[in-house]
Amino acid sequence: MVFGYEDEDELGRPSIVSAHGLKLEVDTKASRTVATDRMVSTRFTGLTINAGDTFDVLSFKEKGQLHSIEVVVDNPYAILRLEMDDYINNPESGGETAAELLLSSRTGSRPDGAFQVTSRLSDGSYVLRYQPMMPKSYDKQIKFSVSNFLRPTRDVFGHTLSFQSRRNLPTPIDLQFIGGGTFTHSGMDAVSLPIMAEAVAKPIGATNGGYVVNDTYNELVYLENVTTGTANPYSGSAGKPIFTEDEIVEDSPYIDLVDSGTAGTFTAGQDGSAIAHPALTGGADFPGTTSSASTQNIILYGTNNDSAAVLGDEAGGASMDSIAVGSRIYIRNKGTLYFPGKVVEIYRYNRTADTGADGWAASDAGATYDNATGAICLQVSPGLNATASTFQTTGTTTSIGTVTTNADSNPTISIRSINVKRYREVSFEG
């Protein structure tokens, strides 16, 4: 249950404004008219809206004047709906989002009687403000709500090039939530993985303002007539990652992110002994197409001489416990998190000392793969849109594993604060 406080009550008593399953309605037939003539300030802080839910900020039958509304929210796709008598902001879409306002450049001079995005804060939050030149009068009722109509998806830090929002939400013009990017915070080299996850959702002090993946697009906006918006619909708490470190870290593998040395262009590559890596199953140019997504080889070696022959404890046969085909993965190198995307193939190098023929064996090859003890190749899509890097994972601050997100089942939206100021002349009670 959520409590709100209005400054007209000198006792500071809470009034129930919204609760799960409660719908506030305005009775069009008032049994009593009360003259109040006072300023009312309504404020909420620290709210979380689940996917599919609406938070009713105001719902009153009254006569008055609206002075201002300010909402600070961690997601540009939260819908703000304002009703005053017969007026509704953007009635066709049921309200407005920061994503639409940013795309239409409603960010500069103050518009009269309309919402604008005034800034993006260092924690990734967006400030939306309604502040008319003169207070806006209403005679019968005022309603204001914030809604979360984000749809769950497993493509956050994964891969898709065609995405449509649900209900009245605008569809993003490019897909800034897919894999292929990095998150860097130079001051977090030594922090735990859970703290890194919180930093991705609240990127205070992060390089480039948080998670960045460049050169993406959304094919659907070119093929369909849809309302569009900009920015990442799964920023903030909606796409907060959940990391699971894989047991392969116990074998301290060296990780080689293979590309051609040019950002966004991938080759299969080879090891230090000129043993070719598995052929790429997708396109070479990031991010590819809807029919042929780009792929990249990520090789886990046992030593830093790039030898496919060994990986960690040869006798025990280093293994993975969480990474599998279909997993989304992360790689951490101290203050930098890499999100290569979704694992589409896994290979293991079968050495001369192993049972079966020498060479790379796919994870569905049965005994040949199971008996292999050489390097592991994770073929991922879309791959990292960055130049190559090789480093050793030893656990804690250098690691590899799987990533899931809040967006998988419930992409929440966090409201930092809501402030509404209005002058109430008459209250129609009953």
Question: Can you offer a commentary on this structure?
Answer:
The protein is mainly beta. It folds into two domains: 2-148 and 412-429, Sandwich (Jelly Rolls), CATH 2.60.120; 181-408, no CATH class. Helix content is 6%, strand content 37%. The chain is built from four helices and 23 strands. It has helices spanning 98-103, 193-201, 220-223, 367-371, and strands spanning 2-6, 15-18, 32-49, 54-73, 79-84, 87-88, 115-120, 126-130, 136-138, 141-147, 171-172, 181-184, 228-229, 241-245, 254-257, 296-301, 328-333, 336-350, 359-362, 376-382, 389-392, 398-405, 413-429. The strands form three sheets. Strands 1, 2, 3, 4, 5, 6, 7, 8, 9, 10 and 23 form an eleven-stranded antiparallel sheet that branches.
Overall form: elongated
**Integer count of domains:** 2
H-E string: EEEEEEHEEEEEEHHEEEEEEEHEEEE
- Beta percentage is 35-45%
State the distance separating the first and last CA atoms: 24 Å
Taking the sheet with the most strands, its summary is:
11 strands, antiparallel
Overall residue-averaged pLDDT value: 88
Tell me the number of strands: 23
Which consecutive residue ranges, at least 5 long each, have pLDDT under 50?
1-5, 8-28
Structural class: mainly beta
Quaternary organisation: single chain
Mind telling me the C-alpha Rg?
26 Å
Q: Kindly state the percentage of residues in helix.
A: under 10%
Individual helix count: 4
